[in-house]
Design goal:
- The protein is an alpha+beta fold.
- It has a single domain, classed as Beta Barrel (Lipocalin), CATH 2.40.128.20.
- 21% of the residues lie in helices and 37% in strands.
- It contains four helices and nine strands, in the order H-H-H-E-E-E-E-E-E-E-E-H-E.
- Strand 7 and strand 8 form a beta hairpin.
- 27% of the residues are buried.
């Protein structure tokens, strides 16, 4: 078999449902380290695996700020149905659970429930991030701006698929200044 054929076969398998299933059985890897100070601030949701708490949400943003106790205030906002629709705000708290990397956090919006917030891919300049959960039921692609280069988006989709996420479930998030 020629090298090109082997490479094509590898690529086809790597992003196939079978490969995703194999990857989904492995522990989810996070980035080696997160500088929390650089991560704080505003993020735009580029895409997500939709869940009930984001029903009809567009223009989704998240803002993270440091609390005096070292934990993180989280303020998520979205507009209902249209970029001009009513604003919905959810306030919560996050805390680092893996002090070695800073990449595994828990987030709570109402007591006593909390969810995993694992940073699984992160730009060296903190301009984009991919956040997921170890059960691979949650996935967010975030950016510091409301738009993301399409080639970068596709690259992040491929990386998430290789980590066992079903990227066919991802939904692009409409942002206010990204209307057709």
């Amino acid at each position: 078999m020629k090298t090109t054929q082997v490479l094509m076969a590898f690529c086809l398998f790597s992003f196939s449902p079978a490969a995703q299933a194999l990857a989904a059985n492995k522990p989810l890897a996070v980035v080696p380290s997160v500088d929390l100070q650089r991560y704080l601030g505003a993020w735009y949701e580029i895409a997500t695996i939709p869940h009930f708490f984001q029903k009809d949400c567009v223009g989704v943003t998240a803002f993270y700020s440091l609390r005096p106790d070292g934990d993180i205030d989280v303020v998520n906002t979205c507009h209902k149905k249209t970029p001009d629709g009513p604003l919905k705000t959810a306030k919560g708290k996050a805390w680092v659970v893996d002090k070695a990397t800073g990449a595994k956090l828990k987030v709570r919006f109402f007591w006593p429930f909390s969810g995993d917030y694992w940073i699984i891919d992160l730009d060296a300049d903190y301009q984009w991030a991919v956040v997921g959960a170890p059960d691979r039921d949650y996935l967010w692609i975030l950016c510091r701006t409301p738009r993301m280069d399409e080639a970068l988006y596709q690259e992040l989709l491929n990386k998430a698929a290789a980590k066992g996420f079903d990227t066919s479930r991802l939904k692009r998030t409409l942002q206010a200044d990204c209307r057709p």
